[in-house]
Each structure stands twice: as structure tokens, then as C-alpha cells.
User: Fold these one by one.
Assistant:
Number 1:
Amino acid sequence: MKHIKIIDLLNNTKTLQEVTAKGWVRTFRNNQFIALNDGSTIHNIQCVVDFENTSDDILKRITTGAAICVKGTLVESQGAGQKVEIQVTSLEILGDSDAEKFPMQPKRHSLEFLRENAHLRVRTNVFGAIMRVRSVLSFAVHQYFQQKGFVYVNTPIITGSDAEGAGEMFQVTALPLDGSAPKNEDGSINYKEDFFGKQTNLTVSGQLEGETFAMALGQIYTFGPTFRAENSNTSRHLAEFWMIEPEVAFNDLADNMDLAEDFIKYVIKYAVDNCADDLKFLDERFAQEEKQKPQAERSEMTLLEKLNFVLENNFKRVSYTEAIDILKDSTPNKKKKFQYLIEEWGADLQSEHERFLVEKHFKCPVILFDYPAKIKAFYMRLNEDGKTVRAMDILFPGIGEIVGGSQREERYDVLVEKMKALGIDEEELWWYLDTRRFGSAVHSGFGLGFERLVLFVTGMTNIRDVIPFPRTPQNAEF
Ligand code: 4AD
Ligand code: MG
């Protein structure tokens, strides 16, 4: 008999049928009650073992972590909190699990411990829920853009360009590492002779390639892994993360903001509607975590309230210049405690400034736009004032920057001049400049850090806990 997923068994209204279920034992109580989980849902199904007619050898092997197959009758459950359970008629151990050695004991583990066991942590309720929500959010991303007629583009992972110009790239060595690679006179590797004939990196962003496709297909999006060799050991940065980058021909900055806000609301709503059980569980977990914090630091809203708040309110659109004025006004010198917030026009905003604006001042998601040109990337459209660019960052409560985007500089001459000033090689980016040579047009796009979105939706606080196998400095175990 084919086995049935536990989520389908639990939603089943027809009892008294013969069923087969397969999964992993979470707990085994009183030699009788198995809590079985197969990953299809946060909920376990209770399997009641007829221990008098089951051999001691089998009973001993029903341990936490073991893979089993049960056959039996689906009956109404007497226990609280579950509608049905399986009265087991036969039970097979598919894979034993040594109870002494299995790291995922049925108790609360610290997140640090679980991170060290990324291959097994997904067997816990928390990580099962997070990974299902992540999967549903991925689907929602594609659904949103596909419904709107965007073309999904796979931009290269190995690339010769540094889209963000920040130099935080992982180099790809397509050369033997045994010392036999061709060298320059100074001993450095001679990339001219390597597999690609030039130095290549793992991509930091698919934007530049995405732009070339937008200038032909109109509306495109990418959704793929991106890599940053920034040595920032924070709870918001990963060395390998997933980014969604839409790019739209003929969109200006205001259109770009509209698209980003509509998109974010759509995917969050999709998760709220389609991950009810997992989000209810994560909501309860969030409440427990908040209780551990001092009163003053606790969230005023539950996780689900936070999600609904984002859905129901417009993001506040504020120019960089207005934001600086707010920061200055909020920091009278007398009040020492806010002194650090004072910023001068032209400075890049630090995360404490962003958090102040979002969490203390506006208390809602904020779209900051028109940043000083000198703190933003070369490809952003220069404003008429000659000193700001049509950039936008979306800041989220508890997360900080979740989106970075802009209207792009479509004027060939202005772009070339900017590249010259920044020392960016025109010849390297000849193909990018072609978009401005042939049929250039106003266009805009943005990048949403997928893990930051998953962080927000799941109420987790460390980005390492929302990606299956986190890549961070000093962490490449898996
Ligand atoms: O602001 P960023 O660097 O923008 C770009 O890469 C543009 N090319 C996007 C575009 O316009 N098409 O990165 C975009 C987003 C950030 O807002 C953040 O959410 C996320 O990517 N991000 C990271 N997420 C996790 N770990 C990191 N190290 C990240 N760096 C950026
Ligand atoms: Mg950014």
C-alpha cells in the first residue's frame, strides 16, 4: 500500500480506513504512543502501538530519529489537539537511530548548537517550519512575476564584472591549485592563461546582465544565489545569499517603488494565506522569545500582527535629505542617549540610523530615496541637482535594509563620465554600455535579499537560521 503524507492523514475526515504512513519518530511515550513526523506539516500524527502484540525488539527500536513505516487504521483520536490517530496493526523499522547519539533530542536546543548541526536541525519543528515557509515564499516570488508577464532570467554565477563596485568578491580560480598554475613574474597567478582567460569572480548581483535583458524583453527578474566576500559577522549578512532582481524598461523611480511595495506585500500575503500552521507555530515561538527580553525591548506586536501591519499600511517614502533632517532633529545634544544618531548630509546611514527611522520615528517600513551620489553605485541615475541619485532602499522594522534599487543612468555620456571618475574600465563593461548605445531608455530595478525577507516573515533574528546551510566567515562545514 502506498503511504500517505501525514498532512493528508490529519486533514482526512474519513476515519476507519487502512492507511500506511512513513516518517521519523519524534517521541515514543509509555511504550505506546509514537509522535510521527514526515516533514509535510508541523504537526505529528499519533500512532498508537499495540505493545502487547509487538515484540520487545521492535519496541526498543522505536527511538527518536528512527525512520519507520506504520500500517493501521485511521481512527478518531481521544487525545486533545488532534482529530485522528493511527491504531497501528504493523510496524516496520526502516532506519534505526541510536537514541544516545542522535543529536536532535526532544528538548529545546540552542540555535548555536543547531547551526553546528545544519544537516539535522531541519528535523526540528522550528527549522521544518522555516524551511517550508521559505519554499512557499520562493514559489510566491515566481508566481508574482510570472502572473505579471515578467521573464525569468538566469544570469551568470561566474562573471568578470563587479556589479556593485565594492570589490567584495570571491575569486574563481580555474587553474590547477597544485602550484603548477602559470604565474606572473611577481609570483601572482597569471589569469590570462587560465580557463576563462581573465580573472573571474562569483557574482555579487545579476543586475548588469539583467539590465541588458530588460532592454529587450521589457520586464525581467532573476532569482539566484549571489556571493559577497564581506567579512561582516553580523546577523544580517551571509557570504552566500539569494537575491531577487527585477528590472523593468521604461519604469522610473516612482514606478520602481510601487513595484517593490506591491511585490513584497504579495509574497508576504501569500505566506500568510498558505503557511497558516507553520506561521502559527512561529508566532508562538516569537512570543516566547520576546518574553525573555526586558520589557522595554519587547515587540509591541505579535509576529502575525507585524505581518498584517505591513500588508495594511503604505510604506513611508522619505528622501535621504529629509531623513538626515529627522535624525538631526531627533538628537538634541542635551540628550546624550541619542547623540550617536546625529548625521551630516552626505554620510552613509549606519544600521542604527536606519533602525531609528523605521522602529522609533516612522514605525513602519520606509522607502528612502535620492541618496547622495558618492555613497551609491555607479549605475544610478543622477538627479538634476547633480549631487543625488535616484536610489531607493527599503528598510524594514527589525531587519534594516531589505531592498536596494534604483532608476538606472540611461544617458551614455553621463554614465561614461561617472565610470571614468570612479576608475571603472569602460572596455571591461563594453557590453553594458551597448545598452546605452543602442536604444537606451529609462529603466529601473531593485534587489531583494531573500533571506532578509524570510527573516522578517518567520520572526527569526539571525540570518543563519533561515537558509539551509549558511555560508558565513569561518563556516563552510557543510
Ligand atoms: O543593496 P545591494 O547591494 O544591491 C544590489 O546588489 C543591486 N545590484 C540590486 C539591484 O538594484 N538589482 O543588495 C540588495 C539586497 C540588500 O538590500 C539586502 O537585502 C541583500 O541584497 N543583501 C544581503 N543579504 C544577505 N547577506 C548579504 N551579505 C547581503 N548583501 C546584500
Ligand atoms: Mg544596499
Number 2:
Amino acid sequence: MIDASTFRLDGKLALVTGSSAGIGLALARGLAQAGATVVLNGRDAAKLEATRAQLAAEGLRVHASAFDVTDAAQAETAVAAIEAGIAPVEILVNNAGIQRRGAFHEFATNDWADIMRTNVDSLFIVGQAVARRMVTRRRGRIINIASVQSELGRPGIAPYAASKGAVKMLTKGMAIDLGPHGITVNGLGPGYFKTELTAKLVADETFSGWLINRTPSRRWGEVDELAPACVFLASDAAAFVNGHILYVDGGVTATL
Ligand code: NDP
């Protein structure tokens, strides 16, 4: 029996990393609009509090937990505090991520390390802190934010593309290991969306022209268009969807 409750998240707590801005903020808003209580995250506590206040003013149930997703001790402390102070984390969205661009042979070692720490290590760090607790409860949903860049070779983004390739395979591996414990792990793969992360590309008319021509839907994505797919993956409707990467990309991956 399918009704509106199939897609509702009432009574569930979701932790969305990197949700003080951009895609994470849109996903957090969507999950909260679907009924979840949402814990927002980012490193900048003031920015995070401003976002929390904004969503609270929209009538949504939101909390804030400022921590760095690349720091295992901070993540463990934060997850323990959320579970003790609010509720068990039933939905984890591993969204925090960064992008740096440059030719492979000129790429700074520090930038490589930052990308890998933020985009890949964080899934292991926050994912493990939450999954260990989900395993004891025998339920949970983990959604990792992937990217079309794991499929699409482009100049100047080799480290970022490699990090998202790792996200893709980590998602599948996590699904295989956590599935027997009642947990699903899926990826949500955005195409090109206008956020801080892509601000320079949006301003670059040559790139924007290429992108619009390359995308069957002939436009950039709006971040709010990602939220329904995230709600779906977190909801009862997706109970048997596991280890899948759902691309929301205006058809970019269909052309590969
Ligand atoms: P933004 O730069 O707009 O936002 C990034 C968010 O992550 C901010 O809230 C930031 O807050 C937080 N963040 C960054 N580093 C950390 C950290 N170490 N610990 C905790 N929070 C952190 O990025 P987008 O919204 O564009 O990207 C979000 C995700 O979507 C990323 O994984 C990205 O790779 C992916 N993606 C984006 C696409 C796009 O077109 N925009 C396309 C495909 C994938 P603070 O700085 O305060 O920590």
C-alpha cells in the first residue's frame, strides 16, 4: 500500500554533514520538510548557527553540530552527543566535500590531501561512527554524496574525480557489509549545480556554454532538485534499494 506516509520521515533523526550551505543545506531542508529532525553540520559554528536559525524560522526541526568531518575524535564526540542529547541517528547523509582544480602535474600535494581527507576519509570517519551504532539497532540509512565526475573525464579535476570514484566504490562496499545488519547505503550523484563549490565555473561563460550543451536537460541544476531524491533514499519507499548510485544530473550520465 503506497500513500504519502511511504515517503515521510516523521520521527527520524538525520545528520547531514556540510549542511551550512549549498547542496547539504538543500538536502537538510528537504529531509526536514519530509518530517525528519535534522542535525546540521559544518566547521564554521557562526555560519552553521545562522543556517540553523534560518531553517528553524521556516518551522523546521533542526539542530546544529559543528565539527570537522576529517577529524575522527571530533566526529565520535559529536555523534555520541547527538545520540545522547537528541535521538539515535537513523539517517546519515555524508555530503561535506571540497573541490580544487588544476592540472595533474602542477597539483599541490596539500590540495590532493585535503580533497582526499574531506571527500573520502570523512565517509570512513563519520560513516563508521554512525554505522557502529546503527548496527546495534539493526536499522539505518546512509546516503553518500557522489558525483558525475566519477564517470566523466574532464581537464583539471583528476584528484576530485578520483575522490568521487572512491565514494562510489566505498558506497557499494559499505552496502555489502552493512546490508546484513538492516542498513542501506546508497549514493546520490549530482550533476552540475550552482553553489560556492562551482561559483567560478558558473561565472565562466565558456564552461557554462559547454555544460549546457553537454546536458540533455540543457541547464544547470538547482540544489532543491536534489532533495526529493535524498528523501526517497531515506524513506520506506527505498527499503530494498541498496548499493545504488542515483544520479540527478539532467541526463549527463545517460550520454556517456
Ligand atoms: P559548498 O562548498 O557549497 O558547501 C560545502 C559545505 O561543506 C559547507 O557547509 C561547508 O561548511 C562544509 N564543509 C566543508 N569541509 C568540511 C569539513 N571538513 N567538515 C565539515 N563540514 C565541511 O559545496 P556543495 O554544496 O557544492 O557540495 C556538497 C557536496 O556535493 C560535495 O560532496 C560535492 O563534492 C558534491 N557535489 C557538488 C556538485 C555541484 O555541482 N555543486 C556536483 C557533484 C557533487 P564549512 O566551510 O563551514 O565547514
Number 3:
Amino acid sequence: NQDAGLKTYDVVVVGAGFGGMYMLHKLRGLGLSVRVYEQGDGVGGTWYWNRYPGARCDVESMQYSYSFSDELQQEWDWSERYAPQPEILKYANHVADRFNLRPDIQFNTRVDQAVFDEDANTWSVVTSDGKTMAATHVVLATGCLSNARMPDIKGLSSFKGQVYHTGHWPHEPVDFTGQRVGVIGTGSSAIQSVPVIAAQASHLTVFQRTANFSIPARNAPLTPEERNAFRSNYPEIRRKAREEMRNGIFQELPDRGALDDGENERRARYETRWERGGLTFTATYNNIALDKAANDTAADFVRDKIAEIVRDPQTAKLLQPNDHPIGSKRICVDTDYYATFNRPNVTLVDIKSGGIEEIRPSAVRAAGKDYEIDALVLATGFDAMTGSVAKIDIVGRNGRTLNQKWAEGPRTYLGLMTEGFPNLFIITGPGSPSVLSNMIVSIEQHVDWITDCVAYMRDRGFDAIEAKKEAEDKWVAHVNEVAYTTLYPQANSWYMGANIPGKPRIFMPYIGGVGAYRQICNDVAAKGYEGFAMVSAEQPQKM
Ligand code: NA7
């Protein structure tokens, strides 16, 4: 396919979120020609699309930020403990400008197809503007929570008012003042947006299929002293987050299990974490994700809190999750979520048994009743981890597509590559810790690993790298095995693909922790990329 005139790059990167931006920066450092394609008209990825009211990161801002440049982390001032979406987007834009990334990013352009040419060891990439180019490597930096999922609900298109999806929110501010609003879904996006929408709307009706556990954020402005506490210790904090913390978030680690304490002591410890707020609640003890009896103590504590906060006992009962262990679905972090149900203008509708029956021109029909609304918010989530990849027609060796290969669930080696698709890298792909971690920690680790790998290949004259089938099979088995030592597979979560009808049930992220995972990836590289085959025109026998 090396037609005269066909534009050729060393690397094509798909997506200009945090993964794609850093990938571009690093590959440029190797002196490579890189082209990034981004379907939005700006950088930021997930943070570009998710503009719903109340959207913010659940990982604290001093940690949900790049660590690769000390100047960057010293100069950027986060304003709050948890950064709101507009500030994260501003940060992404700042990074794009500071490192002069824009000249190599083509916005408003999707990658529609990528076909591997086995003779040339290159990818032929087709974009939505009708262009075709060749690239030695393709990096999928497509994000895990970027493919908003429209639910298949009867009558949805007949609705007369505005329909919004939290994951694909309009860029102009939306004002619900004076409107009757319906929200479908009670995951993180709903839990963040419901209190904000309730404060505007004349009436808000929340349709809940599965109640979720949520911990108060205790968000607050960051003081200069708090910022400095991080800044003056950043190297050590970042090192610990990468190497010692399972989820890539620097925090105080528990030294005991939940059943090691008596009831009063346990309650006191949960109370301390509840008051502190945030994701680290489930790290009060070291066995909450592992032992059902331990987990029950944490779940009971949160259920009791819900009963204390919510005045109407029936509503409180509905809001208390009782069908999955705490933390086995992504735990939510909120500001006044449960208390919002004490407002006179908010109604909770239980749709657990019958779902949404139908959307009518001005109502949602559920639980045998019509709920009149003017605007509808779908907080129904994403086709997570694989959805954005599946939209690209990726054709590997022997004409096999990635969608064919992954029809029974995604298979990768280390989450980084997949057999049959040489020179195709994935950032935070299935089989890596990704969504179970501070995403920026995982992104930086993957980008650094990929950069080292590409440099290794160039130094030694290799043209192609591919995951070996045995290595991939072993990795997939390991990912699965580790997942089943925890309580996670007990929930019908998007980690399992359970939110998408027909999607195979496979526990997608690697739960072994970012530190252990990093070590495995480093060892693989140190052993000359063990489990991968590399070839070059001179050394074709290696693949
Ligand atoms: P989630 O966590 O996938 O939540 C989606 C919610 O929408 C969840 O409560 C679903 O109920 C509900 N849902 C989905 N489809 C329907 C239909 N058809 N009818 C009724 N209810 C439905 O997505 P989020 O955007 O909130 O958060 C995603 C991640 O972003 C989050 O975990 C953080 O990591 C950040 P279900 O639970 O399936 O019964």
C-alpha cells in the first residue's frame, strides 16, 4: 500500500484525551512523525464530552494530574479538592498549549478503519475526512468511558422535549429552571448531577433500576498549604501512588481486616473515613473487596447512613443497595445526593422489576404510571472499555477484524496488545488496571512502556511486534483468576460488560493492582519483551 503520495507516519494515535496527548509528547521526544486524530473539536477526551451538571473527578485533583513534568505539576493551581469538569478541560488545554501539541492533532476527524498490511508491516488508516495514510504503529488512546450508550427504550424518539445524555452533553449551558425533568439511571453521573438538577428544576423524577453506594465527597476549595503539602513531596507521593497503591491513589493504607475490630471500634473507623469523604472509604479495611462478611460491615454502615439522611423511610429503603457488595460496582462520590431526596420537588421511582415501560411525547411511563416531564436526562452510562475501539473497523492479519476476535470478550496481552494485530497498541485497554485505578497513573505507565518499546524496536531494526498467543492466553487466564479472588464479579457491573445487552460477561480490568502490574510490564520489557514476537526484514524468523 505504499502508493506514491500516500502520507506516511511513524505513529498514528487515535484520540486526544489524556492518553493521546501524552503519547504524542513522548513519541515526539523520540523524533518520530506522529499524527493524532480526534473526533471532538478540542482536547480532553472523556472530559471534553462529559459536561453534565456537577461533573467532576472522583480522584482528588492533586493526584488526578500528569506527573511527567515537574514544572507542570508545580505551576498548575487546582482550585478544589475534586476538580470540576471545566477545570480539568482547562488543564487539558493548558497541557496542549504548553507542550505545543496542537500542530500534530487533527480535530473533528474520526479514524474509521485501520488495516494491517502484512507485507509492508504497516497500518493503512482511513479517516472520516476520506483520507488514507500509512503508519508503522497505531495507538488506540480511545478511552474507557467515552462511548456514551443510548438505551434502547420504547418510544424514546417520540419524546417532544429535549433529551440529554450525561456522557454527550451539549457545549452550551443547559438551564432546567422551571422545568419538570426526568433522570434515568443512578450511577456516578446521575449521582453527581441529580443534586444540581434538583436545585434548578421545578420537579425532578429519578428512575432507579439499581441503587448504588455513594460516599460524600467533602469537596472544598484547596488552600495554598494543602497544595504545597503535595508539591513539596510530589516525587515521593507519585512514586508511592505508582508502586505501592493498588489503585494508583496515594492514601493511608489499612493494616487490618474489618473483622479484626469489635463493633464500636469498626464503626468509629468507618465514621472517620465517612467524615473524610471520597473513594478511600472502602480502604478502611484491607479485606472489604475480598471477604463478604467484612464487606457487609461496610455496606451496613452506608445503608445506616442513608437511613439517617433520608427522611421518608420508604425512599431511604429504595436508596439502600442490597443486591451487590459495596465496591463491586464502581463506588460513587457525591455532594448531597441522598439528602436531595428530602426536597419536596424530587421523586424517586423504583423501576427494578419492570424497567422503563415506555417514553411518551411528554412523559416517562414506569411502574404502571405516567410521569410528566419537559426534559429527559439519560445517565445510562457507556459501552465501557471496548465500545470506542469496536466502532473502528480494525483488520489485522489474515483479514480478521478485532470485533471478530473480541466477539466473545476482549483478549489482550497485558492490556497493551492483542495477538493477530501487530504494531497496534492500546492505552488502558481491557486486561490492564485502567478503570480500577487513577487513570492518569495508568495512562502514564502505558505511554512510557509503549515509548520504550518503540525505541527498542527502532534501535534494533525491528519493524513489527506482536503478542504471542500463548502469552495472551496465559494473561487472560491470570486476569480472570485474580478477578475471581475478589467480590467484584458478584455485581452486574460495566466492569463485566453487564450493562450492554448481548455483551459477553468478562471481567475486563486487571485487578492485581497498578504496582504489581507495572512490575510485570517492566519485567516483560527487561526480558527482551517476553511473550511478544518481533520481526524485521533482516530477522523475519522471530515472529
Ligand atoms: P453507569 O455507572 O453505567 O450508570 C448507568 C446507570 O443507568 C445505572 O444506574 C444503570 O442501571 C442505569 N441504566 C442503564 N440503562 C438503563 C435502562 N435502559 N433503563 C433504566 N436504567 C438504566 O454510568 P455513569 O455514567 O453513571 O458512570 C460511569 C463511570 O464514569 C463511573 O463508574 C465512574 O467511573 C465514572 P443498572 O445499574 O444497570 O441497573
Number 4:
Amino acid sequence: TKLRIGMIPADGVGREVLPAARAALEALGSSIPKTEFLDLDAGFEYFTKKGVALPEETVSAMKNDLDCALFGAVSSPSHRVVGYSSPIVALRKAMDLYSNIRPVKSVSKTPGERPSIDMVIVRENTECLYIKEETMSLGPNGKEARATRLITERASRRIGQMAFETALARGSSSLLTIVHKSNVLSVTDGLFRETVRGVPALPGVDGKYDAIKVEEQLVDSMVYRMFREPQVFDVAVAPNMYGDIISDAAAALVGSLGLVPSVNAGDTFVMGEPVHGSAPDIVGRGIANPLAAIRSAALMLVHLGYDGPAKKLDEAVDSVLRRGDVLTPDLGGSCTTDQVTAAVLKEL
Ligand code: NAI
Ligand code: MG
């Protein structure tokens, strides 16, 4: 058997960190099936050249020829560009990658890190405000901009199931925190909250989640508690936008966005992706932290069932962090992407 992996570096530092993930996967040698990498296009830069951000060939390769993929980052402009739409949002939708799973963990002694953090953010990945249904009209108060926020029972149920499964995999008495704002948005967030709460009572569950402790946290106080006592959290499940925001906050608690991995997972496909963006402030200098990308490759392997090799990658990353002498500038070091990658490969 072979492992066919799509590589979509896209924009900015995505192009600098994805080669590190590839080198780490290659260094696993025969502990995983023979890997075959397929380079695929997407991104804003591609859009400026070709007029599309997500070419059809990329989607069809993922649907037909690949077992999994790794995505770098996109540079989506903050102003509206006619014809452009974020390819990562589109890809999650096209492949029905309905969950974004983001483990945030302190390793100990990493500069800027708070100790004893070990949580997983399970972010809904297909709806909420990110359906991007926005309109502009003219009213008595001048321009009126509106956005539609979609929360469906189906998407809330399947992200809820993913969250309970994630919690169960971490031990039968894990804690699951449902993040919402249903004191204000009682219809949309109310549906999310109730549907996730209803997962343990679904047919076929047969009590397997009974020992999981479920609590709720309004999103604003969630951020507060994450800064005050981040070590209490275990698994947190949130609608798309809250999940996006609390994951960047959580990344700050472990020292850098350059450390936090994720996978976009559906029922039939998985795509690893560092949580960070294209980092325009450091692009081109060869100093992007490659560890989030390498950890994303590990997380992708876990979702494909290769726990052992994934653990090897994670341990190599952790020991580079613990040694602390080969770090990129975001962690206070002065090493390059290549030097940090070489240190990981040496550990492997
Ligand atoms: P960002 O995540 O790119 O950068 C935020 C900060 O973290 C910057 O100071 C950056 O230097 C630092 N950082 C990020 N990754 C790093 C790494 N690997 N090593 C060291 N430092 C790192 O977020 P920002 O600046 O708000 O957005 C830049 C662009 O990225 C925007 O166009 C945005 O749309 C896009 N973006 C794309 C995402 C994706 O592809 N999934 C996610 C977030 C943002
Ligand atoms: Mg984000």
C-alpha cells in the first residue's frame, strides 16, 4: 500500500513550512506506507496569476487520487477583491471537512509558555458566519451591512459527536466544554448548545459518554478563563467563528502560533493544516516556525490510524522544544526554519 499525500503550500510562510512537514514524513521511513507526494495549487498568489483561488484540479485530485493532504496557509486580503474567495474555506466545504481539531499543549520550558495546558479545541468548520452571506444596502442610517449566521442541527450534531469522541479518546472521564453565547443569540447558539448536549442521548450511543463531564462557557468568559486558568480545560467544542478566535488565544498561551497544529476532518478525508496564517510580517526571511506544520502532519497520521509514527514525530518536536537551543525567533531563538527542521530530523 501507498500513502498518497496532497501538498498545498498556498501562500506566504505556508510555502516555507510545508517542506519541513514533508521532510519529517519522509524521515519516518518504513514505519508508514511508502509516501507519494502530489503538489497542488491554491491561494491568493495563484488567484492573481490565474483568476481562481481554488482550481478544479486541486479538488478533483483530493476527491479521486489522494488519501490525505497538508495545507500551508492563505493570504486573504482584508478588503474585498472581486472574484476572490478564500480557498481554505472553499476546500473545507468541497471536501465536507466538517471539523477542525486543534490540540494545544504545553511541553514545559518553551519560552512564553504557560505550564500544564493540554486541551483540544473542536471547531465546527462549515457554517456560522463563515458561510459568507453578506449584503450591503442603503438605509436611513447610510450603508447597512448584514451577514447571515447559519447554524444547522446536522452540523451541530456531527461536530458534537466529534467532540464527544475526541473527549472519549482522551479518557472516559474527560471534560467537554461547550462554548457559545446563547444568552444573547438564543436561537442560533441555542440550537448549537442544545444539539451538542443531546449527543449522549442519540440512538446507538448506549451510554458510552456517560462518564464525560459536560459544562458550558459563554465565549467571552471562556477567553477570560483560558487566560486565568487554562489548565482546567480538556476538550472544548465551538461554532466556527468562536472556535477560530479561541484557538489563536490558546496558541498565545503555549508560546506561539507557530506551534499549534490542526486537522480538518470529515468522514472520508483528512487535511492537516497549521493554525497560523501566511505571516506576511516574516515571510521570505526563512524564520517561520515549522513545528506547527510538522505537528499537523503527525495529527493527520493519527486520523489515518498511524498512531505510532505520529507519536515519533510529536516526540521529536517536543524534545527540540525541551532542549531549547534550536528555536525560531517567535520563541525567542535565533535559528532558521531549516535549522529547526534539521534538529527535528536529527531527533527522528
Ligand atoms: P498570522 O497567523 O499569519 O500571523 C499572526 C502572527 O503570528 C504574526 O506576527 C506572525 O508572524 C506570527 N506567526 C504566524 N505563523 C508563524 C510561524 N509559523 N512562525 C513564526 N511566527 C508565526 O495571522 P495574520 O497576520 O492576522 O494574517 C495574515 C494572513 O493570513 C491574512 O491574509 C489572513 O487572511 C491569513 N490567514 C490564513 C489562515 C489560513 O490559511 N488558514 C489562518 C489565519 C490567517
Ligand atoms: Mg484563525
